[in-house]
Amino acid sequence: MDPAATIESTPTARVKMEVFGCQMNVVDAELVLGRFKGLNYGETDRYEDADVVVFNTCSVRGHAEDKVFSRLGALRPWKKERPGRVVAVMGCMAQREATDIRRRMPHVDVVAGTRDFPKLAGLVDRVRGGEGPFLVIDGEERPDIERSPTSRPRPFQAYVTIMRGCNRPCTYCIVPTVRGREISRPVDEIVDEVKGLVDDGVIEVCLLGQTVNAYDGQDRGRTTLGTLLRALDRVDGLRRLRFVTSHPSEFNDDTWAAMAESSKLDRFLHMPIQSGSDRMLKAMRRGYTVDKYRRIVDRVREVLPDMGIGCDWIVGFPGETEEDHEASLRICEEIGFSQSFVFKYSPRPGTKAAEEHADDVPTDVKKRRNRELLAVQERVSLAAHRATVGETMQVLFEAKSRLDDSKWSGRNPQHRIVVAADERIRPGTIADVRIEDATALTLFGDVVALR
Ligand code: SAH
Ligand code: SF4
Ligand code: F3S
């Protein structure tokens, strides 16, 4: 290695990055931080040390946007405190509300949309040189935005975006508007990226896409997610592989077969149902009935019997009755999901649901339905967790336990949290753990052997 490359020069400025929204935003934030590094900017966690603040924003629910506006407002005094400070906004809300952000928050210097964010660091640098403000939201759809493989949250884990955008017609959802048409990255490029990550110490990769099982490698007809899984199965040193989020209608036989063959695939599939009522599913234009969803779950369990299935739900979609809601409670119990994220319906301007229907389920009813669904999930999880007491399972340890720092917290193949104490554990250790105790959220066990 060139010895000069190992000498860190003093950064010209420090960036505080704040990420809202989904994993895709986490990855995009890493990318932008990589670009800043290339311009010799450093990173900081503290606003008081920062010269640049970047918000990577989300539009999926109204609440996510309100939070960003209020946090942006709070940056006014921060910016005044030291001349030359820069505020930049990227992500889905930057795309959707660019002009509104500039109008309501004139102290924002750079707004970069979901296809323009790779330019953000360069634009911030120009603002520091006296130019700007900049607003860029009309870039082309392109999936091949490279990354800096050294910046990621944990050295042994990485998220890899394999496609961008979404072509589905879900009536409540803003994602297709803000992220654009679906576009996949080619298999070779992803495999190269994963190999690079593995050379850099990564053992677990999670593939990201809004409808990840619709992946087509830009080669419609011949390539499927299965093709990519097989290619990644051959990457030496990669130990665990996951993909999110799957849409129930987008699976194909080749992908099922590749999942069954894979030696690295985790036993966790995030496949939201959204509602247990056919009437609601139809109004949401999800493209399946409850019965079809059931049959897909049967297929999953036929292929991989020990698969854990995670779910998203929307409660209080326009017109949702108690009967519809009860159907959701029933199917949650029946399927036995391993995890549920429950969201209160939030009308998104411009979506079909918001244009055509009043948001007619009162907030307190949404809150109650939310609680009830989570209570069913908790019961289901507790029963499933208790049933694992006495079993031995493989765990990838991630970090010290948040509740007790003499213990370590990790994930089993079903992506359930497992806590254990053993002085040999380090971040990234894989071990066989015998489960001794369980709550609805966590399994507790003892290390039997290191892997
Ligand atoms: N592409 C993924 C997830 C997209 S957004 C999928 O199709 O499953 C993540 C979750 O947010 C969705 O699964 C849905 O449950 C929720 N969501 C999306 N739009 C919403 C809205 N307008 N109001 C409330 N929840 C919403
Ligand atoms: Fe939104 Fe539906 Fe696409 Fe998911 S599949 S991102 S919920 S439109
Ligand atoms: Fe939010 Fe955009 Fe992700 S709207 S959920 S950050 S794709």
Could you explain the architecture of this structure?
The protein has about 450 residues and is α/β, with parallel strands linked by helices. It has three domains: about 5-135, Rossmann fold, CATH 3.40.50; about 155-385, tm_1862 like domain (pyruvate-formate lyase- activating enzyme, Alpha-Beta Horseshoe); about 390-450, Nucleic acid-binding proteins (OB fold (Dihydrolipoamide Acetyltransferase, E2P), Beta Barrel). The chain contains 15 helices and 19 strands. Helix 5 (about 90-105) links the parallel strand 4 and strand 5 (about 110). Iron/sulfur cluster binds next to helix 7.
Topology (SSEs and partners):
Blueprint: H1 3-6, E1 13-19, H2 23-38, E2 41-43, E3 52-57, H3 62-73, H4 75-81, E4 86-91, H5 92-104, E5 110-112, H6 120-128, E6 134-136, E7 157-161, E8 163-164, H7 175-179, E9 183-184, H8 187-199, E10 204-208, H9 225-233, E11 240-244, H10 253-261, E12 268-270, H11 278-284, H12 290-303, E13 308-315, H13 322-335, E14 339-344, H14 352-356, H15 363-386, E15 392-400, E16 408-411, E17 417-420, E18 430-438, E19 442-450
Helix pairs in contact: 8-9, 9-10, 13-15
The protein binds S-adenosyl-L-homocysteine, iron/sulfur cluster (SF4) and FE3-S4 cluster (F3S).
The site of S-adenosyl-L-homocysteine (SAH) has 17 residues, from strand 13.
